[in-house]
Amino acid sequence: MARPTTIPCEKCFFTQDVTQEVNYLTGMWDYACSNPVHGETPYIWSVIPPSNAETSASRDSFLDGLGIYDDLLLCIHAGDPWLEYGVIEDRYRRDNPDEYAQLIEKYSHSARNSTRGGPDVQPSRSRKTSSRLSGALSVLAKAGLIDRAFGPASGYWSYNPRISRWAPLPSPAKEDLLTWSEYAAGEGLDPTRWELP
Ligand SMILES: [Zn+2]
Fold first, then answer.
1. What letters, b where the CB count within 10 A reaches 16 and e where it falls short, cover 79-103?
2. Residues 50, 66: one domain?
3. What is the distance in A from the centroid of ligand 1 to the CA of 94?
4. Are 163 and 25 in contact (CB under 8 A)?
5. Is there a single domain that holds both residue 35 and residue 90?
């Protein structure tokens, strides 16, 4: 199974300042180059991994302690269509507000980034709450309990080049999809925003 490998920076072509990690939210490999030539903010880019890449996380003891694997399964209902990732995170936070607040505290959230209206001007690049929750969903998919695919992201989530979608088994037809924006509109939420506790 291929793991993210160090590749030269797209911009400066050096490798020594490049770090990489799996982004389970998008199923892509995220790279960052902290060569000072890029200024104070690292240059970041993402690549779609090779088809034999391992894109499943391993079970995490902190997430396990919060009961997240069981609680996420309850967010995907029998008969659901494919659910764009944001639908599941919204169901999870409504049903588990205390655990959700703990996750935001420990891992932060993309919505805290100042580029999306949050308070963090230079947030750390490491995997945040949504990537951790997607990693947990990938564990459930690998265990054969749910299905996973990737596709375009809608509304708030469209800062991602693509995003994970999840479904109960047996898998619905590909076009049978509930996007985040459709779901949010139905729930009376603003699809372009993500409200944090
Ligand atoms: Zn660079």
1. ebbbbbbbbbbbbbbeebeebbebb
2. no
3. 40
4. yes
5. no
Domain shared by 79 and 152, yes or no: yes
How far, in Å, is the centroid of ligand 1 from the Cα of 120?
23
Instruction: Tell me, yes or no, whether 164 lies in a domain.
Output: yes
**Domains of the chain: total:** 2
Distance 7 CA to ligand 1 centre (A): 10
Same domain (yes/no): 6, 69: no
Domain membership of residue 104 as a residue range: 61-187
**pTM passes above 0.70:** yes
Tell me the CA–centroid distance for residue 50 and ligand 1, in Å.
Answer: 22
Say how many Å lie between the CA of residue 10 and the centre of ligand 1: 7
Task: Show the DSSP H helices in 47-169 as ranges.
Answer: 61-65, 68-73, 85-95, 97-107, 129-142
The string of pLDDT tens digits covering residues 179-196 is 999 999 999 999 999 999
| Residue 9 domain-assigned (yes or no) | yes
> Over the stretch 134-189, which tens digit does the pLDDT of each residue have?
999 999 999 999 999 999 999 999 999 999 999 999 999 999 999 999 999 999 99
| Partner residues linked to 2 by β-bridges | 53
Instruction: Calculate how far, in angstroms, residue 125's C-alpha sits from the geometric centre of ligand 1.
Output: 15
The mean pLDDT value for 18-37 works out to: 93
- Are 68 and 133 in contact by the 8 Å Cβ rule? The answer is yes
